[in-house]
Write a structure and sequence with these properties.
Two copies of one chain form a homodimer. With 209 residues, chain A is an all-alpha fold. Chain A has two domains: 14-60, Arc Repressor Mutant, subunit A, CATH 1.10.10; 70-201, Tetracycline Repressor, domain 2 (Orthogonal Bundle). Helices cover 66% and strands 0% of the residues of chain A. The longest helix of chain A is centred in the middle third of the chain and has 26 residues, at 124-149. At the A-B interface, helix 8, helix 9 and helix 10 of A face helix 8, helix 9 and helix 10 of B.
């Protein structure tokens, strides 16, 4: 047995090592755990082990933390949509690029996307973020429509409902996918894309038992 | 102009017309809007326009409201799974029955399922509900495995991740589907099932442009 057992634990004091990125990451985890409204700056300070004034050194308000956190999810998604617009392939190829990139961003920005997906639209900031999210639904729906016109996608599927169903499957990844889980991120991306494009029944009916 | 403008508004008093079902429905809408933890019995009483003691006439506690609300979603889902177990068709047919029934229950019990899907697992009651939900994931994953063994489902898809992706698409319906929306409930069910089983690319590649 070591004598350190008897040593009094160090008193909690300000930890000067935090940068804004770390403060943001820990804040987002707290928002996701307790809800944004229920997470006070005092609670955040406790969680970071720093004083409230030390948090205000990093960001002027809780709403600024929310804005920064939502941008962590929205900016990469919007930049991906810009790439889709400039992509010179068929609508079908652009659709695949859109869906694959979304899976990657969701895995990389999991906690930030979770926050975005749970927004209720209670404030102007939240409503603006939700509107940016709806713009992505419209982009995806438009891409489905163009791919149908090109003859590469079946035409019986209603484009807006299809866009919602596609995002539904892909967005669910933030709720259940863990990096230490049963499949790695690349396999997950390939399986989700293949499931969406080819379905559970990949083979013609007459080749199955 | 009517002279009623000058009349003092009636004092708030108990509305004897509520039954437990209505109280439950309004409570669930409040839980979904503000979050369960942030919805006090006082807030609920305001929303119902009745006194707190009138709510306690219907249910002994807020947690009982949560239990009743979660059962509104869980009991039909578990009863559907019982039907799947007794179903005498192939695993493929049982899988389709499972997914179709889930879409129907989600549309019929939308606000209750929304509450279930947003649970964080903060209390014993919430953890029990989440465990009942995980049991459904396992049932679906097992059904995918059996359908793969039967040779009716492609074998390259990892069953647990596939079950999560299938539920991801279908559960999303509670977030976006509205009865007055672009497609009716039966069309939505058919389109979601067809998308999942046959994919976006329904035709063989050589038949597309």
């Amino acid at each position: 047995m070591q004598s350190t057992q008897a040593v009094t634990p160090p008193v909690k004091r300000g930890r000067p090592g935090y940068d804004q990125e770390t403060v943001l990451q820990i804040a987002v985890e707290a928002f996701n755990e307790y809800g944004y409204d229920a997470t006070s700056m005092g609670k955040l300070a406790d969680r970071l082990g720093i004083s409230k004034s030390a948090i205000y050194h990093h960001v002027p308000s809780k709403e600024d933390l929310l804005r920064l956190a939502l941008d962590e999810a929205l900016i990469p998604l919007e930049s991906m949509i810009e790439q889709v617009r400039r992509h010179e392939g068929t609508a079908d190829e652009r659709l695949e690029f859109f869906l694959r990139s979304t899976v990657r961003i969701l895995i990389a920005k999991r906690s930030y996307v979770t926050l975005l997906l749970r927004l209720r639209g209670n404030t102007e900031l939240e409503r603006t973020a939700l509107e940016r999210r709806r713009q992505m639904d419209r982009e995806l729906s438009e891409l489905v429509t163009v791919a149908q016109r090109e003859g590469r996608l079946r035409e019986d599927l209603e484009p807006r409902a299809t866009a919602r169903l596609l995002f539904g499957m892909i967005n669910s990844v933030v709720d259940w996918y863990r990096l230490d889980g049963v499949i790695d991120a690349v396999t997950l991306e390939n399986q989700a894309i293949s499931l969406l494009f080819n379905g559970l029944h990949a083979l013609p009916k007459n080749q199955t038992s």
